[in-house]
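Subject — a protein and its fold
Encoding — discrete vocabulary of local shapes:
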Amino acid sequence: MLEVIATLPRGPVFLAGETLCCNVTFTNSSADNQSAEEVLAWSSVQIICQCTVSESRVQLPRTTALSTEEASTTGCETSFVPNKGERGLTVLCTKPKILFCDLKLAPGATRTYQYEEVIPTDAPPSFRGQAVKYSYKVIVGTQRLEKTTKMVRVPFRVLVLFGLNDISVYNETEEIAPSNPFLNNSRKENSVLDVGLQEVISLYFIFIFNTDSYNIANGRGKVARFLLFKQAYKLGEDIVGMFDFDVGTVPCVQYSVTLQSEEKISEECRRKPGQGTAITSYVKHQEMCLNTLRTHMNIPIPLTATPGFMTDIVCQRWRLHFEFVTSLDKVDGPESVPADCEEHQWQGANTLNVETMVWDLPIKVFPTNPIHASSVTLMKTSALINMANG
């Protein structure tokens, strides 16, 4: 029995532009020394990205996708079709890399090969929306002599930081690099991960020092003032804001804040001209606030979410969705408690005449360190197949 195992040693999350490393191990698990050795004709590895869409909402232009036949011939000159059996359309197919030809394994023998491939910086991110889905896999194809091709599929996730160009511009040249006679001056080039994290931090700091104050009002007056300490966040961060109801003239009974993403299909890909935007809600903070002077909210951004991005098919943006329930009548609060009174009870009104107002505040969500995102993912880092003799 021959086993083929493909493993992603660093984890299943990568930043576009990084080098993906996959270890492929071939093992002849026959314990009987009298068994014949296993012979494999070849093995090849490559990366594909499949795009799956809701046919009731999206119609893809012919130029944005590769059919099964095209994917097998466009940069994929092997005898197996990597997207065979996959749903959707292939939007990315890297050139195949051959691991070996004519491999012989004696009973109990094991051979491990390392596959490395750079994920294109212009690749779409991994995304599971209501109308569009982008999914990545490492495909390992292996064939015995005169047998059918067997494939191992290892799914992984890609985070994209748009604007990340050639990393050579981030590496110091010898002319401008500082020199120290007491140190080894060998130049160390930045990795794509280092550059990507630097770029996230640079973009991040553009927004975090801008504390914004918003006056929330309706036709009857001012409801509250909302303070948001920054407008840009990374995956896994908490969105912290403060409400000041003391400045309001309209009594607010309850408020809620929901973290939402907007999935908007491009006009040329919409199935219907008047098609709306799909909204996905993630985390909700809700609080009763009648007679409250000040309070705050704290909403975590899931590490499993997809940062804002745009492709030829879909655009995703992030926002905070606010709902305020205000009273149409004046609500008297509790009276001041006398100093000599130990207990004081206030009974609110049984019914209130209320109305609801909504407000959407756009925010920016950037990728985080892919190693951090790997710590919470449910994706497996390895896959295995058994190649029977039949």
